[in-house]
């Protein structure tokens, strides 16, 4: 045996024992430290320490490494790893690995990996590269391949979390254990991607199966399959629930504060009905329940609004249609008389809601064709004591409005027909203004027209109004016509039967008299029946030929002149004030001092305001038998003139002299030479 006593030995790969099967290790003084045998190996050591001294953690022998680290064999064939004098990890006799626990003590079959700790992360898998970090779970069925079993991993650099199974039909299942119960499946994602809540075999992309559990305690309805809540109490509490029962499926929200029902939406599986505001369908109209029904106990809960927000002229729309086809999407043509759509109003009569109060019907009003659908709108009401409604108003395809009974026999050329069989067949216009001033409480029918430029104007007003200043029922009738400056009264009847023309009643004994075409009638005395008569004269003598005679004035002496809207004169030309038949009488007086002379009077007219014709003329001779005094002569002529246009039809008067020396007599006091105009009738 060779004894080696160096302070240190390095680079030794093996030690060979020549005699026996043991190796003895001694101190420098020769005392034995440990003996290593081929049978028991290193177990003969109580403790092996590597590095500086440390707390001995071993319970039956172990290895102390550095400062505070140890590997020991404790009781029960448990391999223990420790640091800082504490047990950190254990491998028991069955090979189960426990972290931060001396051993698994949870009962039942011990897990092969058991992690116990108080930190925020008990297990962390970190890949220092940018690749995938994963946790893979396999068994004998799946094998141990790279893609076998179930994997939990982050997907590359995106950080997405994946759960992946190697089985083609594997599902992802989540389960919970209720208090006092057993572990129960709660959520499943099937191999096809379907999500089931309380459903192990989801048939749709989302399937929720719910046993009755109820809404929160403040709810009036049970069976909330899906419940969305906001707030916990008070005025901020709100919830909405979606549920189903044997009677139907529904959506329901809470009232303010979450204290009860607000707006339920129920889906009836038996009839396919949708009920808003209630959980059961009511039979309205005897149809057995509508597909869509809205119920409520106030205006807000029993009203429906359609709103459109768009930068155009279009508004909200309700669309209804009718086809004679018997299958969905059929476009079989309708026939004349077919009801295309109806709006019907029903009221409860104490027994049911099957009797209509009224309705609106849209029907085919003629023979339809491609892009051709003549239609009518019919309004119906139910009379007192009747059990069905009756047509009252119809707007047909031509835009004609018929009111009353026997509508089909109404005039074909009338845009508005009022047809009835009793004394109450009338139209009422009411002005609700409370006033006792004459001319108020007025109701008006307006007749309008459209000018060539598209302007709409009032042409005629027919008005009924109060006629008196006190609190009475006196009425008056007025007809107003547009004269270009607005509507003006042309005819009226007062409360006492008095007749008004152009807003005038006239004096006692007067009659209405025509003023000719284009002119309004006027009140005139009944005696003569002539409404215009005027007399004019020459105011001074005129010598020589006069074409035409000038210097005229309206007679103003001896109560002369005439009446009515008279003639006008300019430079000897007379213009008529109105159309009609006119009697014109011309008298001319002439004088001479020294000759035997002829005098000629001519009444001339024009119908074109230019060329004049001799309508009437007269002549006479004047003989001077005594040179001591002037000789005088007079002539007369007249003409009936049909004046059809006051702008072109005019008159003038001329004088023709003989050998000279004669002159026409004129005066501003006496009428020597003059003309009389009398309008005797309409043109």
Topology:
Blueprint (H helix, E strand, L loop, with lengths): L21 E5 L5 E6 L9 E4 L11 E4 L3 E5 L5 E5 L2 E6 L5 E3 L13 E3 L18 E4 L12 E6 L4 E6 L6 E5 L7 E6 L5 E3 L8 E3 L15 E7 L7 E7 L4 E6 L6 E8 L4 E4 L15 E3 L44 E8 L9 E9 L10 E7 L8 E6 L5 E4 L11 E4 L23 E8 L5 E11 L8 E8 L4 E7 L5 E3 L8 E4 L8 E4 L6 E7 L3 E2 L8 E3 L7 E2 L4 E3 L2 E3 L4 E13 L4 E10 L6 E10 L8 E13 L6 E7 L6 E2 L9 E8 L2
Parallel strand pairs: 3-4, 8-9, 15-16, 21-22, 27-28
Antiparallel strand pairs: 1-2, 4-5, 5-6, 6-7, 7-8, 10-11, 11-12, 13-14, 14-15, 17-18, 18-19, 19-20, 20-21, 23-24, 24-25, 25-26, 26-27, 29-30, 30-31, 31-32, 32-33, 34-35, 36-38, 36-39, 36-48, 37-47, 40-41, 41-46, 42-45, 42-47, 42-48, 43-44, 43-46
Throw out a few tags for this protein.
single chain, 683 residues, mainly beta, eight-stranded antiparallel β-sheet, seven-stranded mixed β-sheet, 0% helix, elongated
User: What is the makeup of the main sheet?
Assistant: 8 strands, antiparallel
Oligomer: single chain
Distance between the termini: 173 Å
Helix content: under 10%
CATH topology of the domain at 532-681: Jelly Rolls
Number of helical regions: 0
Structural class: mainly beta
**CATH hierarchy, class of the domain at 532-681:** Mainly Beta
Tertiary shape = elongated
Mean pLDDT: 81
Low-confidence stretches: 40-44, 52-56, 212-222
How many individual β-strands? 48
Strand coverage percent: 35-45%
State Rg. 62 Å
Q: What would you say the CATH architecture of the domain at 532-681 is?
A: Sandwich
């Amino acid at each position: 045996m060779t004894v080696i006593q160096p302070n240190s030995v390095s680079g030794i790969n093996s030690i060979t024992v020549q005699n026996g099967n043991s190796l003895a290790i001694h101190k420098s003084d020769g005392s034995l430290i440990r003996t290593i045998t081929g049978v028991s190996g290193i177990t003969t050591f109580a403790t092996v320490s590597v590095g500086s001294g440390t707390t001995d953690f071993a319970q039956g022998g172990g290895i102390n490494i550095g400062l505070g680290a140890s590997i020991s064999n404790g009781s029960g064939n448990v391999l223990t790893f420790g640091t800082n004098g504490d047990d950190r990890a254990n491998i028991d006799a069955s090979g189960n690995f426990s972290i931060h626990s001396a051993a698994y003590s949870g009962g039942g079959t011990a897990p092969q990996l058991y992690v116990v700790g108080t930190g925020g992360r008990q297990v962390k898998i970190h890949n220092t590269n940018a690749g995938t970090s994963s946790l893979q779970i396999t068994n004998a069925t799946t094998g141990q391949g790279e893609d076998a079993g179930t994997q939990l991993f982050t997907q590359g650099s995106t950080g997405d979390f994946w759960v992946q199974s190697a089985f083609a039909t594997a599902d992802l299942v989540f389960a919970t254990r209720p208090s006092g119960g057993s572990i129960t499946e709660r959520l499943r994602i099937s191999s096809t991607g379907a999500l089931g809540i309380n459903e192990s075999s989801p048939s749709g992309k989302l399937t929720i199966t719910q046993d009755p559990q109820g809404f929160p305690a403040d709810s009036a309805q049970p069976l909330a399959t899906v419940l969305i809540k906001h707030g916990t109490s008070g005025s901020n509490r709100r919830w909405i629930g979606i549920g189903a029962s044997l009677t139907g499926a529904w959506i329901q929200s809470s009232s303010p504060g979450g204290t009860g029902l607000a707006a339920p939406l129920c889906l009836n599986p038996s009839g396919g009905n949708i009920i808003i505001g209630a959980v059961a369908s009511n039979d309205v109209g005897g149809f057995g329940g509508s597909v869509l029904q809205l119920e409520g106990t106030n205006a807000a809960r029993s009203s429906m609004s359609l709103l459109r927000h768009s930068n155009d002229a279009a508004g909200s729309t309700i669309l209804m249609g009718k086809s004679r086809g018997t299958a969905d999407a059929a476009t079989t043509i309708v026939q004349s008389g077919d009801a295309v759509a109806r709006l019907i109003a029903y009221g409860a009569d104490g027994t049911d809601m099957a009797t209509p109060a009224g309705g609106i019907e849209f029907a085919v009003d003629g023979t339809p064709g491609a892009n051709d659908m003549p239609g009518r709108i019919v309004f119906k009401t139910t009379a007192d004591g009747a059990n069905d409604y009756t047509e009252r108003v119809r707007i047909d395809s031509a835009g004609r409005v018929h009111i009353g009974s026997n509508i089909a026999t109404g005039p074909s050329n009338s845009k508005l027909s009022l047809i009835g069989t009793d004394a109450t067949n009338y139209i009422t216009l009411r002005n609700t203004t409370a006033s006792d001033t004459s001319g108020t409480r007025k109701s008006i029918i307006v007749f309008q027209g459209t000018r060539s430029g598209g302007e709409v104007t009032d042409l005629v007003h027919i008005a009924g109004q109060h006629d008196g200043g006190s609190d009475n029922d006196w009425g008056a009738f007025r007809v107003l016509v547009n004269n270009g400056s607005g509507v003006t009264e042309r005819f009226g009847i007062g409360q006492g039967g008095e007749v008004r023309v152009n807003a005038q009643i006239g004096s006692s004994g007067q009659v209405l008299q025509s003023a000719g075409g284009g002119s309004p009638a006027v009140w005139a005395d009944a005696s003569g029946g002539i409404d215009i008569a005027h007399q004019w004269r020459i105011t001074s003598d005129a010598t020589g030929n006069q074409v035409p005679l000038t210097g005229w004035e309206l007679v103003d002496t001896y109560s002369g002149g005439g009446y009515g809207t008279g003639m006008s004169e300019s430079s000897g030309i007379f213009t008529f004030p109105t159309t009609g038949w006119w009697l014109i009488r011309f008298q001319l007086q002439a004088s001479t001092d020294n000759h035997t002379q002829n005098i000629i009077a001519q009444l001339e007219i024009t119908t074109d305001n230019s060329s004049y014709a001799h309508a009437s003329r007269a002549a006479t001779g004047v003989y001077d038998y005594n040179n001591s005094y002037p000789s005088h002569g007079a002539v007369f002529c007249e003409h009936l003139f049909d004046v059809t246009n006051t702008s072109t039809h005019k008159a003038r008067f001329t004088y023709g002299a003989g050998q000279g020396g004669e002159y026409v007599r004129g005066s501003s006091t006496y009428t020597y030479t003059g003309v009389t105009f009398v309008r005797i009738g309409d043109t």
